[in-house]
Design brief:
The protein is mainly alpha-helical and about 280 residues long. The protein is elongated. The N and C termini lie far apart (about 75 Å). About 40% of the residues are buried. The N terminus is likely disordered.
């Protein structure tokens, strides 16, 4: 077996690279720059390493550097049919505003690689942005046929149904995602909004509370929970939600006051100072 300069076998060297890529990929969302560094170092030694190219593209897109991702992986996409790289390229194209090019690549990818679920997810997301809702639903459902245990597909599908105020199908989609990942923040928030939209405030409040345990700084969720509680007649608890927003995020005072005042069970003040005092605005 061929030896590397350090004396280790080629197989051991490649195994070490794979472990590096595994660790960097697992931490990609939290440490995209570290993932970029690991991928770049491997590509310096092996310029066409497929997994390193994929990781580099994802890391650059995660940092909002879609143009650099296109430069890094476009040649490799032309030279071989790699559905992962093709999907990443489409993401980078979308990020740089080249939506038509992204759509072209994604449609070609799902035609060539009909079992690659991430491409269907990205295609559906792009079609949603383009307000081609029926086509987006078809794309997500096609992805679910391939990968029924991929929660992101159900979450995105739920968002489309929620956007169209089809709350029954939205709840079914979010419930599917939660059956796979019970602590999915996105699915919990989507389920809460779907219930709230049709006046099921008790259920909505429960989902908002579960969501806020995961993301306690989400001001919109606190406002929505407050609105649900007001509708349930739990005025003190509802008002406390609005105060939580104002005290921790004073910059959202106007938005919070507007939500409270416009609620069917909200409050109205003739003097701005009285409203500020009620909500605990630190600037009052």
């Amino acid at each position: 077996m061929r030896e590397t300069p350090s004396g280790s076998s080629t197989a051991d060297f490649r195994s070490s690279r794979d472990r590096q890529l595994d660790r960097a990929g697992a931490a990609l969302n939290q440490q995209p720059r570290e993932a970029e560094r690991v991928a770049s170092e491997i590509l310096d030694a092996e310029p066409h390493h497929p997994r390193a190219l994929q990781l580099l593209g994802k890391a650059l897109v995660a940092q909002g550097r879609g143009g650099e991702a296109i430069t890094a992986i476009e040649a490799s996409v032309r030279n071989r049919r790699d559905p992962e790289l093709e999907t990443i390229l489409a993401m980078a194209l979308r990020q740089t505003g080249r939506l038509d090019d992204a759509l072209f690549h994604l449609k070609r990818t799902v035609k060539r690689h009909a079992r690659h679920a991430p491409a269907f997810r990205e295609l559906g997301s792009l079609l949603f942005v383009l307000e081609r809702f029926d086509e987006a639903i078809v794309a997500f459902k096609s992805g679910l046929d391939i990968a029924p245990m991929m929660p992101e597909l159900s979450i995105e599908l739920g968002r489309i149904f929620l956007h169209r105020r089809d709350c029954s199908n939205a709840k079914a989609a979010f419930a599917r995602a939660l059956s796979i990942v019970p602590n999915s923040a996105e699915a919990l928030f989507g389920m809460a909004k779907a219930h709230q939209e049709i006046g099921e405030n008790d259920a909505a409040a429960g989902y908002f509370r579960s969501y806020l345990m995961l993301r306690p700084n989400d001001t919109k969720a606190w406002i929505n929970l407050g609105l649900c509680l007001l509708e349930l007649g739990q005025r003190d608890a509802g008002h406390d939600c609005f105060r939580t927003v104002v005290r921790s995020h004073p910059e959202y005072y106007a938005e919070t006051l507007g939500a409270l005042a416009s609620s069917g069970r909200g409050r109205f003040w003739l003097r701005p100072s009285a409203a500020a005092s009620f909500l605990g605005d630190p600037k009052a």
